[in-house]
Amino acid sequence: MSQPAHATASPSAPDASARTLIDPRGPQVAAAITSVVLAAVLLLGDSVVGTVLLAAQVVVFGLGAALGVQHTPYSLLFRTLVRPRLSPPAELEDAAPPRFAQTVGLAFTVVALVAYVAGATLVGQVAVGFALAAALLNAVFAFCLGCEVYLLAKRATSRRTATA
């Protein structure tokens, strides 16, 4: 059986202390919450409530991008309400790829928020739609699109560095 594309390590891996490791189920739960929020934003459109929900999601993505996914409100919900009911994770995941994914989500939702505020509703809906599609991939299939982009970029830059 092949190793998953995302970076994982056992809790006792020797390099585990060199990076932040997280329960990979946490970002998946966060993606489910994000999916609900973004679907509500699409349903509510550029109404005040929709715009406020979108702004709140921008803040969540901003916290995840700046501080790491383990410091978001969704992570707090996972740790307090979900994690105690689960068995320990089989493996832990490097927090860097999900953090990058939060940055990508932040970019799309900032574009959407600016578009909604500027009256460019269609642009906002498209940006929210892209973010929602990525969140749903993670929530439903445990496929983190932003994480995969992070790993592809990391491989590409390490090859370039190795050949230079």
Note down, in words, how this protein is organized.
By secondary structure, the protein is mainly alpha-helical. The chain has one domain (20-163). Helices cover 69% and strands 4% of the residues. The protein has helices spanning 25-44, 48-67, 73-82, 96-118, 121-141, 145-163, and strands at residues 8-9, 21-22, 92-94. The chain has a three-stranded antiparallel β-sheet with strand order 1-3-2. The chain is globular, with a radius of gyration of 17 Å. The N and C termini lie far apart (34 Å).
Helix content: 55-70%
Distance between the termini: 34 Å
Instruction: Count every beta strand, where a strand is a DSSP E run of 2 or more residues.
Output: 3
The pLDDT mean sits at 90
Alpha carbon gyration radius: 17 Å
The amount of beta strand, in percent, is under 5%
* Alpha plus pi helix count: 6
Structural class: mainly alpha
Q: Which of globular, elongated, flat, extended, rod-shaped describes the shape?
A: globular
Strand order of the largest sheet: 1-3-2
Major sheet attributes: 3 strands, antiparallel
- What is the succession of H and E elements? EEHHHEHHH
Total domains: 1
Stretches with pLDDT under 50, minimum 5 residues: 1-16
